[in-house]
Each structure stands twice: as structure tokens, then as C-alpha cells.
Write a structure and sequence with these properties.
It is built from 14 helices and 23 strands.
């Protein structure tokens, strides 16, 4: 059986002749059911339907989109068991607590946070200059394509995750491009999304799903004249191909590409609680078989006897820890190639290093080491991401070399510094953090980076190659919404022609507006 695609409000048989199957990573066996690779004419039909929906929704209040997002969150929760079971089969991620108790609630929470932001409209930053009679606000940009990753089948799913929620909250229709690792999970989400869209009277092209495209068609997709923007999470190689096509067409594309998330461990904290920290780091690095975008893949240390003891403790813990299952054969292959590349650049394996050892697609927990001078001689090669259950320790000669290493880092999502509680590490901290701060989107102290809170203050972004643009976050409402919006200014436009949020009278929905330089929830003149 070949599953249908969701185009213009209907599940229809694909016109494509090529298909693929999902694979259970724990057993390496294919899962029943074929999924289509959509040909261009199918993608074009989805784009045309999304464009028609976008035209129909022009000027709609945020309440319409909030109602959909809340109905969708309810529909997802009604299908919890089905979603968890399918995702467990397709990804080998634990049904509980990972999928059912952590990731699914996070997903519905994101949808409801996006609904709250859409309802008040404060995210759109209504701005009024009464003297010049100029008013502006952020509004929808048009049809959005979302390319989801393999490692978060719920929270970053192309038709349920954060990018999807943000694009909808801004008032845009979404065409989801599913990930080949978990097409069944994505199909169930799409069924729930269609149910919610019909329940809340959304246009037929409001939410659509195609499972896979050819590489050339993907580039045509993101650069199509009718598309507003694209959100992509995945490999650097594929993302940059899409970015090149979108840039040529002048289309915004927001990329999350790769990140090794440096952790700086200073001497004082090793002396203070080195054994505890070795366990904390090992847990963070190997969590989810290292398949987190914020996985700590690089550790920076300063040479010394205590540092050597710490390294030995971490290596022992890596060797003793259970070996997890990768999301796919491709992840297993790429991780092994990444480890080999780090060795070719001068790194030495301290633990692991061989493929296998766990259930299905797997690789030994791998810890590598390199000295600071070798790292500085080839920082590009020694920063190549090996996505999985491994990390590279870089041992600097002294604090000055540690700063040089920090200056040589590429952009990352996160960077954290562990220092002692007495203040003995403060001088080195003050040296290294100014260099690290410009390299990371989120700076942490004494905390591993793998937890990403859905908070308005969160930045899940960073300088290239962590993302394609350092200004925007992919997590946190309402800040994530801006990626899928455009600034719309109204100069001397007659009052009755203005959007409701820019009228003199406050709409009464709790929206904050910037009026003559002051934030207000009052009507003008009141």
C-alpha cells in the first residue's frame, strides 16, 4: 500500500512512481507501507493551493489561527498512543519517558503558546507615530515550507513542531515536507491537523503534506515565486543547497544546520567536583545516543594533573555506559565517517571508536582527545560535526591558548562554562567568555546544553553554521514567529482602511502597542 499525500484539503494518491519505506532502527527491518516521492507537478499543486489559502486569509484576526492551533493540540492529545507507538517504531526513541512524557507535551505546549501569541497580537509589535501618521506591524509573509529533521519526530515535526506553530501563528499556510525517517508519525499528525483545520473552518490549502522530494525539486520548491519563506532543520550540505536556491530568488530561508556546542571546563571546578561533573557530562553527551542539536560535542580544558584525572573518569564512564540506537543507517554511517575524519586531523580515541555494540544501527560511545596546538593548526577539520554519541576533548596548554581556541570556533547554538563556586576560576572566565559569547546563541553557566526550554527568552539559534542567520530563534514564542512575518507600514492610510491593531481604539484583546515611543494597552487619546 502506498500512502496518499495531503493536497488542498484532501488525501489523494500521489502521481509519483517512486516510493520509500521507513525502517525500524532497532531491528533494521523495513516497516510496512510505502510512501511516495512527490513529482514536481504535485509540489506545484500544493504551492498553488497554499497561495489561494493565503489570499483568502488576508486580514484575518489572530483569533482564527489561535483557534486552529488549540484545536490541533487537542486533536494530537487524542491520538497520543498512536503517535507514540509509531514514533517509537520509526525512531527507536523510548516510548516513555522520551516520547509520551516529554516530547509530546512539549509539542502541544508549543502549539498553545503560539495560539496565545496569535490571539493577543502583541508579537506583531503594532507601532504608531501619531505626529507623522505612520503606523506599522508585522504581518504574514505568505505560504511557508517546513522541512523537519529526524531527531525530534514530535517537537520539530514539519507539520506539528515549532516552525509549523510559528508560521501558523503569523497567519501563513504551511506545506510540510516530512522526514523520511518517520513518515508514518508525520502522516498521523497531518490527519489531526486536517481535522482541526476543518473544525475551525480554515481554507483547504491551509495545511498540506508531502513526504519527500527530489533534490532539484526541493530547490525549486523553496525558490518558487509564490512561496513566502522556508524553515529547514537538517544537514549542512542539503541546507546550503536549499539556501543557495532561495537566496537567488530572494526568498527567506531559516536554517538550523550543525553545532558542536563547546563546553569549557575550568580547573577550579574540576578540583571542586570533577567526579560529579564527569557523570553530568557523560549523561548529557550520550542522551538520546547523542542525537540532540545541542549535544556537547566539544570540551575545552586546561592541562594539569586534575584535568588528566577528569579525562580518565569521563573515558571510563563512556566505556561503561549503554550503547544506544541511532535514528537511521545514515546517522550510523555519518557518525563513523565523522570519527574517522577527526582521527585523520590528529585526534586520538580514548574510548569506543568502532561501529556496532548496540541494538540495530549503533556505534560505540566514542571519546576523542587532541591538544590545543593541534586544534589551532586545523580548527576547521577538528570542528566537523560527528552527530551522535561522541565528543572531542581539546586540552589547552594554558588560559591564553584556551582563549585562542575559543576565538577559532565556528558559530554554535550553545556554549557553556563550568567554573568553581569560590571564584578561583573567575579570572579565566573573564578572559574566555568575551571570545565565546560571539560564537554562540545561548551562553550557559554550570549547566549542560541539552535542555531547550520553550521560553520567550530562549535563543535556539546562533552564528553560522549553527543557523543561517544569527538574529532569529527557532524555539520560544512569540520570538520564533518573526521568521515568518514581514514588516508592513501604513503611511497616511485612512483610519477605516487600517488593520484593527493599528486603529486609534485599542482592540481590547490584551495587545501591547508602541504608541509615540511608549508601550500601551490603551486607546489613543484615552
Amino acid at each position: 500500500m502506498t500512502h496518499s499525500v495531503l493536497i488542498n484539503g484532501e488525501w489523494i494518491p500521489s502521481s509519483g512512481t517512486m516510493t520509500f519505506q521507513a525502517v525500524n532502527p532497532a531491528t533494521t527491518e523495513t516497516i510496512d507501507g510505502d510512501y511516495p516521492i512527490s513529482p514536481w507537478e504535485e509540489i506545484e499543486a500544493a504551492i498553488q493551493a497554499a497561495a489561494a489559502a493565503s489570499r483568502e486569509m488576508r486580514g484575518w484576526p489572530g483569533e482564527r489561527f489561535a483557534a486552529f492551533l488549540e484545536a490541533y493540540a487537542d486533536a494530537i492529545e487524542a491520538r497520543t498512543d498512536e503517535l507514540v507507538d509509531l514514533a517509537n517504531q520509526e525512531t527507536a526513541l523510548p516510548a516513555s519517558p522520551r516520547l509520551k512524557d516529554v516530547e509530546l507535551p512539549r509539542t502541544t505546549n508549543q502549539l498553545r503558546q503560539a495560539a496565545a501569541a496569535a490571539r493577543t497580537g502583541s508579537w506583531s509589535a503594532p507601532t504608531i507615530d501619531t505626529a507623522a501618521n505612520i503606523r506599522s506591524m508585522f504581518g504574514p509573509i505568505g505560504p511557508v515550507a517546513v522541512f523537519g529533521p529526524n531527531n525530534f519526530p514530535f517537537a520539530f515535526n514539519s507539520i506539528a513542531g515549532g516552525d509549523f506553530a510559528a508560521a501558523i501563528a503569523a497567519g501563513n499556510p504551511v506545506i510540510a515536507k516530512g522526514h523520511s525517517s518517520h513518515p508514518g508519525t508525520t502522516r498521523v499528525f497531518a490527519e489531526a491537523a486536517l481535522e482541526a483545520a476543518q473544525k475551525t473552518d480554515m481554507p483547504s490549502g491551509f495545511v498540506q503534506l508531502i513526504y519527500r522530494t527530489g533534490h532539484e525539486d526541493g530547490c525549486r520548491f523553496v525558490s518558487h515565486p509564490l512561496m513566502g519563506a522556508c524553515g529547514y532543520t537538517g544537514s549542512r550540505h542539503a541546507g546550503l543547497k536549499l539556501k543557495e536556491a532561495a537566496d537567488k530568488a530572494g526568498k527567506p530561508i531559516y536554517l538550523e544546520l550543525s553545532s558542536i556546542n563547546p563546553v569549557v571546563v575550568l580547573p577550579g571546578v574540576i578540583a571542586e567536583r570533577g567526579d560529579e561533573l564527569a557523570g553530568e557530562f557523560t549523561t548529557s553527551c550520550l542522551m538520546g545516543t547523542g542525537q540532540f542539536c545541542t549535544n556537547p560535542g566539544l570540551v575545552l580544558l586546561i592541562a594539569g594533573e586534575a584535568t588528566e584525572n577528569f579525562i580518565c573518569a569521563v573515558a571510563d564512564k563512556f566505556g561503561a555506559a549503554p550503547i544506544g540506537t541511532f535514528l537511521s543507517e545514515g546517522v550510523q554511517r555519518n557518525f563513523a565517517e565523522g570519527v574517522a575524519a577527526l582521527q585523520s586531523a590528529g585526534a586520538t580515541v580514548l574510548a569506543g571508536g568502532e561501529t556496532g555494540g548496540g541494538n540495530g544501527f549503533s556505534h560505540q560511545n566514542t571519546l576523542l582527545r587532541v591538544d590545543g596546538a593541534t586544534f589551532l593548526a586545523d580548527p576547521e577539520a577538528l570542528q566537523a560535526e560527528a552527530f551522535g554519541n561522541g565528543s572531542l576533548l581539546v586540552v589547552a596548554d594554558d588560559a591564553d591558548q584556551l582563549v585562542q581556541i575559543a576565538e577559532a570556533l565556528e558559530g554554535n547554538l550553545t556554549g557553556c562554562v563550568y567554573s568553581d563556586s569560590s571564584g578561583a576560576d573567575d579570572a579565566v572566565y573573564d578572559q574566555v567568555v568575551p571570545a565565546l559569547r560571539t560564537k554562540v546563541g545561548r551562553l550557559l553557566n554550570d549547566k549542560m546544553p541539552t535542555g531547550v526550554a520553550v521560553s520567550p527568552a530562549m535563543n535556539h539559534g546562533g552564528p553560522f553554521p549553527a543557523t543561517g542567520h544569527p538574529v532569529f530563534t527557532a524555539v520560544g514564542m512569540p520570538t520564533a514567529i518573526f521568521r515568518f512575518a514581514m514588516l508592513q507600514s501604513y503611511d497616511a492610510v485612512r483610519p477605516h482602511r487600517l488593520p484593527t491593531l493599528l486603529h486609534d481604539e485599542h482592540p481590547g484583546n490584551g495587545c501591547w502597542r508602541l504608541i509615540d515611543g511608549e508601550w500601551s494597552q490603551q486607546s489613543i487619546g484615552s
